[in-house]
């Protein structure tokens, strides 16, 4: 007998608990995954093997030359994404709740795209600054690093408000595509796995497997766009940093 997995609707969520526990959860997950994001950003910006020959090489060189702190450059700025994350989920759930006449897959796809579009207006400036912090002092010891306020002032001085929105259109495309694919495929996977799972299978297990498969789909489809987006956002270099040279080599 198929295992029917019901998705929790927004009106059934305790909003106080969600925003309280969700914030703690988001920060915890970001703390664990942030080093991977730093390495990913450095590798995406690198156009040849000028500094890193691969993922493990980047990890070893970062630790050897910058220590553990090298994996957490820009971490505090990036935690502002907790706010954009709540904005994203709220936008998604509200949009999804207005489309009850669609199936779960279609609702997730459309609502995910809408939520990503709305979130990106807040997220893009955070990404630009945090990514500039991530790539400072690569492969160097005892480098005097600039803080977030200094970098923000440099970006505004050199490029105005537009400097915080470099790659914005591609960010919208990337975020909307990733979100739409993730949520759309999640609804489909829930139904498929539920049909084949033995009766009594944990719903949490089914949802976890569906979430993992959905994330894999979104990553494969969205990664090429993410690489181009990162390079566009970081093409505006830091003051005192040769952006043209760095963009050509990384």
UniProtKB/TrEMBL annotation:
<feature type="repeat" description="Solcar">
    <location>
        <begin position="13"/>
        <end position="98"/>
    </location>
</feature>
<feature type="transmembrane region" description="Helical">
    <location>
        <begin position="164"/>
        <end position="184"/>
    </location>
</feature>
<feature type="transmembrane region" description="Helical">
    <location>
        <begin position="204"/>
        <end position="225"/>
    </location>
</feature>
<keyword id="KW-0812">Transmembrane</keyword>
<feature type="repeat" description="Solcar">
    <location>
        <begin position="103"/>
        <end position="192"/>
    </location>
</feature>
<dbReference type="InterPro" id="IPR002067">
    <property type="entry name" value="MCP"/>
</dbReference>
<feature type="repeat" description="Solcar">
    <location>
        <begin position="202"/>
        <end position="250"/>
    </location>
</feature>
<protein>
    <recommendedName>
        <fullName>Solute carrier family 25 member 44</fullName>
    </recommendedName>
</protein>
<dbReference type="GO" id="GO:0005739">
    <property type="term" value="C:mitochondrion"/>
</dbReference>
<keyword id="KW-0813">Transport</keyword>
<dbReference type="InterPro" id="IPR023395">
    <property type="entry name" value="MCP_dom_sf"/>
</dbReference>
<feature type="transmembrane region" description="Helical">
    <location>
        <begin position="18"/>
        <end position="36"/>
    </location>
</feature>
<dbReference type="Pfam" id="PF00153">
    <property type="entry name" value="Mito_carr"/>
</dbReference>
<keyword id="KW-1133">Transmembrane helix</keyword>
<comment type="similarity">
    <text>Belongs to the mitochondrial carrier (TC 2.A.29) family.</text>
</comment>
<dbReference type="GO" id="GO:0016020">
    <property type="term" value="C:membrane"/>
</dbReference>
<dbReference type="InterPro" id="IPR018108">
    <property type="entry name" value="MCP_transmembrane"/>
</dbReference>
<dbReference type="InterPro" id="IPR042164">
    <property type="entry name" value="SLC25A44"/>
</dbReference>
<dbReference type="GO" id="GO:0015658">
    <property type="term" value="F:branched-chain amino acid transmembrane transporter activity"/>
</dbReference>
<keyword id="KW-0472">Membrane</keyword>
<keyword id="KW-0677">Repeat</keyword>
<dbReference type="GO" id="GO:0009083">
    <property type="term" value="P:branched-chain amino acid catabolic process"/>
</dbReference>
